[in-house]
Amino acid sequence: MPNLSPAQLSEIATAHGTPVYVYHADRIAHQYNNLKKAFGGTKARFFYACKALTNINVLKLMKKIGASLDCVSIQEVKLGLKAGFAPEDILFTPNCTDFQEYVEAKELGVNINIDNISILEQFGNKFGSSYPVMIRLNPHIMAGGNFKISTGHVDSKFGISIHQIRHIERVVKSTKLKVRGIHMHTGSEIKDIGVFLEGLQVMFSMAEHFADLEVIDLGSGFKVPYQPGDPETDVNSLGQKLSEAFKNHEKETGRKLQVWFEPGKYLVSESGYFIVKANVIKQTPATVFVGVNSGFNHLIRPMFYDAYHYIVNISNPTAPERIYTVVGNICETDTFAWDRKLHEVREGDYLVFYNAGAYGFEMSSNFNSRLKPAEVMVIDGKAQLIRKRDVYEDLLRNQIELDI
After folding, report:
1. CB within 8 Å of 251: residues ≥ 6 apart
2. How far apart are CA 38 and CA 261, in angstroms?
């Protein structure tokens, strides 16, 4: 699947200004089709984890290509419904959420995933067997590329511990709750497919406690490569091994279960490009800085997760390489890349950050009263604006000015 070319990206930057996020619709469809093919031997469903990128046009594209939707807030649920998803194709998986959001999700008719015994009991007491739910379990498996994105370990706030299964059973029995699915999610950027297989065995053992079970949900965490030579999750091998495991489980138990996943980064990360302009070249006794017209207010992953993003100077691609530290214009330590080889950068050149589709714009802010960037989607080869760049008035939009 070809990337957008430097020429295409340069045209977009010239037409729409910088900084700008660009998403390639064909790449999203390609990634989704990869998963469908890899897990073709199982009864699999894929719910796009829209917390990665919620632009309404991305959601509409996901619906068009056949994905379902995973939401972590009631607002994401409402965005999904607005984008055209049927309630049965939306999964609501919040945590530390007010009970009223669960009630609202129930009224909207979506799938509900509960990760707290208190909420489970409240939901059971209010609705009993009238509305089937799923339960998110904590399998106590440590996995993920960074502790901040590891969610299945013993100290995680996510899920109900598998060691509390007797408590769960008492709540289910006393309230007559119908549990149609059990769910786990151990983290993001999982390279070892053994993590999923280990988790599946835990889920199979938990399945014995739920008579009405239809679904085992393995979350996601499929890793995509962020730099040349990076490993990625072997979804084809995982799909084959899961297919065998589910067939064996069906033979042993007579239960034919669906498997659900919630990929986010896997579907949109590689589709995204973030284009910035070099404002200044600043030489110090220690290094040469490229100061760009953005900062961690637009792309926080390098500062928050120590994340690597491949960067290319698309304005001067044949020049000799030099070593730079790429920094932003925020009044904080604001570093995108340390000691990075780039083709010689001149003031005014465009730099492109690759793999910027997931948790890029979605985690952006107006810190330092800087304006949020525009978003563009390339659909059928045509670049279309899907979010206008902020203007000064947006900073004041929801403020109430007093006569002081």
Report:
1. none
2. 13
Q: List, in sequence order, the alpha helices (H) in 83-116.
A: 99-108
Q: Does the annotation mark 331 as catalytic? A: yes
Helix (H/G/I), strand (E/B), else coil: 366: coil
3-class state of residue 201 by DSSP: helix
Ranges of H-type helices in 208-287: 235-253, 265-268
Under DSSP, is residue 344 helix (H, G, I), strand (E, B) or coil?
A: coil
**CA atoms of 163 and 140, how far apart (whole Å):** 9
More confident residue, 145 or 253: 253
Least confident of 157-161, 170-174, 254-258: 157-161
- Which amino acid belongs to residue 158? F
Task: Considering the candidates 50, 71, 96, 331, report the single residue annotated as catalytic.
Answer: 331
In terms of Cα–Cα distance, which of 299, 319, 318 is closest to 309?
Answer: 299
Cα separation, 80 vs 265, in Å, equals 18
- Cα–Cα distances in Å, from 89 out to 30, 77, 265? 21, 10, 19
User: What structural domains does the chain harbor?
Assistant: 25-268 (3.20.20.10), 270-390 (2.40.37.10)
CA atoms within 13 A on the CB side of 41: 15
Count CB atoms within 10 A of the CB of residue 305. 16
pLDDT above 80 for 258: yes
Q: Are 235 and 223 in contact (CB under 8 A)?
A: no
pLDDT in tens, 43-74: 999 999 999 999 999 999 999 999 999 999 99
Distance between CA 158 and CA 95 in Å, rounded?
7
Q: Tell me: cis bond preceding 132? Omega within 30 of 0 counts.
A: no
Question: How far, CA to CA in Å, does 218 sit from each of 46, 61, 193, 271, 371?
Answer: 11, 24, 12, 24, 38
Q: Please report the beta strands in 12-157, taking only residues with DSSP state E, as ranges in sequence order.
A: 20-24, 44-49, 68-71, 90-92, 111-114, 133-138
pTM: 0.93
How many residues does this entry show for the chain?
A: 404
Q: Which residues contact 393 (CB under 8 A, 6 or more apart)?
A: none
Q: Where are the alpha helices (DSSP H) in 131-234?
A: 165-175, 194-207
Residue 140, by phi and psi: left (phi above 0), alpha (psi -120 to 50) or beta?
Answer: left
